[in-house]
Amino acid sequence: MQIGTFVHYSTKGICQVREIETMKFSSETKDYYVLVPVFDRNSKYYVPTDYDPQRIKIRSAIAPAAVEELMGYAKTCQPYEWVSNVHERKAKTEEILHSSDHKRILRLIKTLRCHEEHQKQIGKKMYLSDAKALRSALHIISDEFAFVRGEDPKTVAAYFAPFLANKCVCKMTDFMHVLPQPFKTAQIKGLRLHKLPKRAGAHCAE
Predict the structure, then answer these.
(1) 7, 19 contact by CB (below 8 A)
(2) Count of CB atoms situated within 10 Å of the CB of 185
(3) Using one digit for the tens of pLDDT, what is the confidence trace for 105-138?
(4) What's the predicted TM-score (pTM) here?
(5) CA dihedral defined by 18, 19, 25, 28, rounded to 10 degrees?
(6) Are 115 and 79 in contact (CB under 8 A)?
(7) 34 and which of 11, 18, 38, 202 could share a cystine (Cβ 3.0–4.6 Å)?
């Protein structure tokens, strides 16, 4: 990474590489990139200059043309079918949030928005973990799209609101196609799922 460039840092959004700073943590002295979020200049993130790209996801921002394509995709994409087991759902949402896959994150937003609306209709609230996941997903999408388009993140989030709450259904296996190893076997809605493949076939049109 070059000093002064802008990168997308995992779930933190678009950041500027401010400088490289030598710091000491746990008796070990290392060089760290100092990343400052574009839309939150009061925050800082420190990433080792020798970071593992398989564990820490840092990439360039997407191109303007890709943003326009994804904004169109958000209007027609299908939500995932709801996973009733809270632990499996939390594990899967975390995997999606860290995947850097915009289409999967948009579908996750629609899924959580549908659930949120359903809960309101029956006089209940979302689990705190689901509400947190929804905020994180919206932040990831609106932050990057706003940066690329030169807009305010709140404006982008408001744009998505109407069509990210449409109700539709996808197959359970599509939502769970990369479950962490502990959840390879699960009891869900009376169906026993055994050792799902690493990637099951998609059941909804992308």
Answers:
(1) no
(2) 11
(3) 999 999 998 898 888 889 999 999 999 999 999 9
(4) 0.72
(5) 150
(6) no
(7) 18
